Amino acid sequence: xxTVTQSQPEMSVQEAExxxxxxxxxxxxxxxYLFWYKQPPSRQxxxxxxxxxxxQQNATENRFSVNFQKAAKSFSLKISDSQLGDAAMYFCAxxxxxxxxxxxxxxxxxxxxxx
Amino acid sequence: GAGVSQSPSNKVTEKGKDVELRCDPISGHTALxxxxxxxxxxxxxxxxxxxNSAPDKSGLPSDRFSxxxxxxxxxxxxxxxxxxxxxxxxxxxSSPTHGYNSPLHFGNGTRLTVT
Lengths: 115, 115
Fold this sequence. Notes:
The structure holds 2 protein chains of 2 kinds. By secondary structure, chain A is an all-beta fold. Helix content of chain A is 0%, strand content 52%.
């Protein structure tokens, strides 16, 4: 079965600095998607960035970028120029075509941003 | 446009009572998902509806949990004879199409507390 692991329960970063959140996953599939979701105190899950496994180029969305290492099954999220509004829970998630749209989530990393 | 709407936002119930949680997906979205998020945990898949197909109930933790989706739109998650371990945030999500690379849009969840 596919699993997603986030080994950092909590992370902290100084405002304007860069932070990297780690995620590893396990799958025997070759075609899949990976996602990072942000969950602020409002509880709503917000899509931050996604990566298709067949694309070698790492996805980037403004200050957010990923380091996708397919062979190592690693999918880390880098947040540059951290802002106070980035403070939230971050979840890594996996999706493959055999499971329809169902996402498998990691345990989450709580990010705090210090002014 | 309107996002995914869940009600109630918070629910406190006594152990042994039945509860119903409601989800209004984004209009036109054919797929609907329920997830459970226990304190400090990731999101646990419960059930998935896609159009008129039979739902994927593989994540329901016990036969006390059930869900239905009427008219391909609104969904209700019912928990019978609630237990304290059912306390969690229940998140609903919808997506425009079935499956792969169809981004999930989440509601703000219902926080259920069983006393």
